[in-house]
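Worked example (supplementary).
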Amino acid sequence: MSDKQKLVDVKNLKVHFPLFGGVLSRRVATVKAVDGISFSIKRKETIGLVGESGCGKTTVGRALVAILRQLYPDVEIDGSITYNFNGKSVDFARLKPRELRKYRSKVQMIFQDPFASLNPRMTVAQIISEPLQLHTKMNDSEMKDRVGWLLDKVGLQPEQAYRYPHEFSGGQRQRVGIARALATNPDLIICDEPVSALDVSIQAQVINLMMDLQEEFGMSYLFIAHDLSVVEHIADRIAVMYLGNVVEFGESSTVYYDPRHPYSKALLSAVPRPDPHRQRESRIVLEGDVPTPLNKPSGCGFRTRCPLAEKSCAEEIPVLEEHALEHWVACPIVKEKNAG
Amino acid sequence: MENTPTVDQAAAAQEQISLSVLKKRWLKFKSIKRGYYAFIILITAYIISFFLPLLINNRALVVKYEGEIWFPVFQGYIAGSTFGEDVPGEANYRELKVKFKSEKGNWVIMPPYPYGPYEDVTTAGNKMYEEPGRGHWFGTDNTGRDVFSRLLYGFNISLSFAILFTIASYLIGVSIGAMMGYFGGKFDLITQRFIEIWATLPFLFVMIIISSIVRPNFFLLIVILTLFGWIGMTYYMRAEFYREKTKDYVAAAISMGQTHKKIIFKHILPNSLVPIITYFPFAVIGGIGSLVGLDFLGFGLPPPTPSWGQMVSVGLQNMVKWWMVLAPLGALFTTLLLIVFIGEAIREAFDPRVYSRLR
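After joint prediction of all chains, the assembly is encoded as:
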């Protein structure tokens, strides 16, 4: 793939949250939420980011929209996130706040909880027109038309524009959230578990809506989820995260049907498959809990629960290696086994 | 066709569904009768009190003297000699009215209650310690001033003072508390330490020292009280903003590039209004209390100003003249009671539980 088609390139991204304690507020520990991950998103592509809760998925998403610094003033961000907007490469971290604001319309976010992501004191019209006010020079009637058009696009009635969020159901609110993200024609939409708060029947509706919209407007998605079957449906490529690192990255079908990393295998064996004729595979049950990102094990983060763990795993952090074409796995043991 | 709702009705129904939260709370407040009527009474009384010079005054509304028309209420001081009256200084309109009754063409229209809050025994006809009666409804005090008129003028001053003080201290307290909660980090840490130090300053001693250097007036007193009064609100706003900031709608606003100012005032503040509105009436009570207390101790408004605290203090020195004590205390009690009713109703209106009202 040529570089031109790349929309965003994440290189060795690290996000650490320092913890302070004691009388003098000294730094006592560091939460390594994201610990050196690299991936890229192409235009019109959907990347699925999966992992257990607490593995840093959401932090990656928030780093991409560059809101971590404002939300957590103490956060330490390292590495680079380079966007490529119409041939112009932009690194949000290097921009002054005023310049950054201009590019914010290009990267938008859909949030997990549709009950918290819409301001309860604003009508739907106010919510959707806010990004328009910031990034376009529309007058009131143009704005009204655009809001009605957007509501129509996400499957709501334009007459509902003057209602408040609490008058909508969860699925409808998520549609409002999608309309807000769509308002400024972004190049990338970060979807932070957009369906996990919804009913299964509504999940399918919202996912299909998002896929239709991608077809129509051609933006890229970073789809964060913990439900692999959802991700397999929507994503072109999947990245599996564990404890702040990507352990496997590849084409969606490859990762889904032929996982290589022991963690991906365990994760996928836990997905219920509604097919009564299929033979029951042996479920891999991992022992113990996810270690805390405060005190990560040395070497491979997964070695404490890994069925294949060897002594050498504790020594160095495994890097992503291409095991097959466009299929990257961060486990030297698996590679050895496959080779030998 | 009768049952088909018209477009207007549909729009009205729609509107009814889509009431904002504040409107719903206002409707609930209106349904709590005790608080709502207290609110109506107090607001009406407060608005009327701005027109007191037209209602309760020793200056006449209109005087016609030898073909010329005078408006002493608006014109202010007019010497008695202007109207052919043999008094030193300002005209005595009550006597003028009696005098003009026998003169043709000359007349005086007095306000409904013809005694002012400032005239004392130096005005002819005024006596000290007059008992309540037809002339002076609540009697006169130790300097011959009319207690009833001073009481009503004092109502306007007390309430204006308390409201201005509350607004001023809330403006500062809300802004600083909001910034502390929103920006967090070092700004929060340093400001919080400063507030802790500032809060330990003994207010009364500072007040005594200041009022021994400068004679405080209405606005100086508000400034001084505000300097000490803004702190309480910062605690609530700081906590509110810390809580609201973690919600996703703030993250959404940041991610679309909204400015800090807009996020604070347009997004978070409307969601943090509960402590501001529910505490407002009680802060007004506190303001009235502080003014009465300072006036009582003699560090408040300068003496001729009609103030309840000074009236209570003078009344206590003349306990036998019961009207001088009961009148200001009764007025204070009634006002505070009305405000408490309002505050209670507001608190209930903001309570999400529907059946929690004590009856």
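Two points are worth noting when inspecting this output. The longest helix of chain A spans residues 200-217. DSSP finds eleven helices and twelve strands in chain A.
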